[in-house]
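Below: protein 1.
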Amino acid sequence: MATSDRTGVSTGRTRVQTASMVVGAVFLLVGILGFIPGITTNYDQLTFAGHHSEALLMGVFQVSILHNIVHLLFGISGFLFARSVSGARNYLIFGGVIYLLLWLYGLFIGHDSSANFLPLNNADNWLHLVLGLGMVALGYFLSRNRKSPRTSQPR
């Protein structure tokens, strides 16, 4: 929650804004790490897009240049939307929904299919489920109105 000074002026960030920034920072970090040989194995096989990219972030998550760029953009968005409570909430909830849809997409497309343009593997799919659920939960629970009955009644 944001703190208030003696005049009642809000100072600092709310928990949902902080969460948006932390999630954004993690996405930025992942996007950057996807371009670092060694952290990304088979780096010489990194392609722009598609399932032919054999590059693996931390040896587990299949990535491509496009996949890394998406992570970078999602990270920047987390910081931009964190400027307001509603923006942070929307970033987390709608971003989480996007990741849940991406999880479903990854489950139903063939991993060797040309439709696997990001690319995605099983590890990516399950990570997207966890990210989606986590982001939606953060956005919802950290932005709920928690006024006590006494403060919500008119005077």
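Below: protein 2.
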Amino acid sequence: MNIMRERRLRGAIPSQRAVAEALGVQESSVSKWERGVSKPRADKLPIIAKLYGCTIEELLTSND
């Protein structure tokens, strides 16, 4: 999920907290996704892709 961190740091999303609030998850979950420790549930992928302005495929194939 490296693409998530890269896009957030480039200003697409202001903070992990903003992502967590938009998705209805814990901020620690977003941190784990960005670090590659865990992956989001499949039902969250369309929302994440829209939030970050990328495709689901890009989320799934990004290298950690």
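The two ends are 6 Å apart (CA to CA).
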